[in-house]
Amino acid sequence: MGGSSAAAVLAHAGLRVLLLEKNPRLGGSCSYYQKHGFRIDFGTHMFSRGPRGPIGEVQRRIGLSAEQQVRFVRAPTICQVRGLPKPLVVPASPWRLPAFAIDLIRTLRLSPREVFDSGRLFAAMFTMTEAEIAVWDRRTIEQFILRYTDNPRLIGLLGLLLGLYFVLPFWTVSAGEAIWCFRQMVRDNYVSYPLGGSSAIPQRLCDAAVSHGATIRCNAEVVRIEPAGGDRRARIATRQGAQYQARAVVCTTSLKDLVQRLIGAEHFPARFASRVDGLRSSYVAVQCKIALRRNCISHGCIVGAASRVPGLKPHLLSLADYRRIFGELEQGCVPSVMPLYCQVPTFFDPSLAPVGRQLLSVCGVAPTLDVSLQQPERVWAETLLQAIDQLLPETRGERLFIDTISVRSLGSWIGKVNAPAISTAQTTDQVGARRPSVRLPVQGIYAAGDGAGGRGVGTELAVASGMLAADAVLEDLARALI
Known about the structure:
This protein is an alpha+beta fold. It is built from 16 helices and 18 strands. Helix content is 37%, strand content 18%. β9 (222-226) and β10 form a beta hairpin.
């Protein structure tokens, strides 16, 4: 998403652009594969702002008309939350929020005082100035919520919903980043999914880049980048033996990959190389792609948690329980409670499956590849399937096939070291003014994607970063000509 955005903006500006993709197909985690008439995303994406966020902005920047732009389809609900005494439906329309609030109060059995404190919490989120958000960039979601309530059920639900943005536990995520993203989502009111699947977005951007003269080469894995020499050109080598020269190189892998593997830390100032080495990434997910004989799920997205331990109810967890569960993940153990996120692509676009069939894309949190697993990968997949049976019982007996995508498999496709969902995680020291810049301290080298620059949720963060990187390239090349 970052690479296709940067390529489209730079080609539209008149530069000679070459896009190199390591895989046989474009899109990264927004790419797809086909099976038995189903078009299946590699990732599990929803788009929190649709055409009103960075994805719409980049399409408008490169001159695509409304008819040419990717069409996003909204759902009447943001998600359904399961694993509670009663399922909760989070509405997309503001006028339905009072009814949702009443359901929330009854389901969580909030006292009048807790209801008042919850109102104060949401009022604070929506009335913060940009300066106040910048202050909260350096503090966590947990610290923010605890200012208003210590009810673990309320903290857990809000933490789960906000933590989904970043694939991190809520005591590590930047509150400022979470509040900024949540406000943008509510104000834009366009949680959605694109017709044609997630891959429609990078494909449309790359098509636009080609229409402005860009060249795209797939099966072209970059293995070495030499920074610009006396001729002010960087040199790029691929595993397939091709070599190129360029005035500017925008790289969308992780900063650790770029600095330590592709270029070499010795080419960077020691302080910068040390900071890159210390960057924290997010967790990732094990995934199940489930084809169903019929439409069983009537929501576009379902979230929840399922317990592996009898008597341990996810909606009654204490804050200590949450820390223990994520501690299990960090030790490479299958967690006793599995957070689950299920996206239903065919709810938005039935053409992604044969007529009358339904496609589910389900993921459960998992550690990155630098953590040694205490159980085989198949146990993680089996645990996710057990969680699916608990939270989506209506799908039993309706499954045509189940494809499991392990962390290692997804990591091999994406190519980022250790296969995180977000390579520079949105923690308190890695967002806002503290986020790494798209300009690297080496001439002609830029970063885009989820590793540097930008603000937002997942794919939208990558697109925002891609535009920032393209703007930096244009500014620096213009300055060099003056």
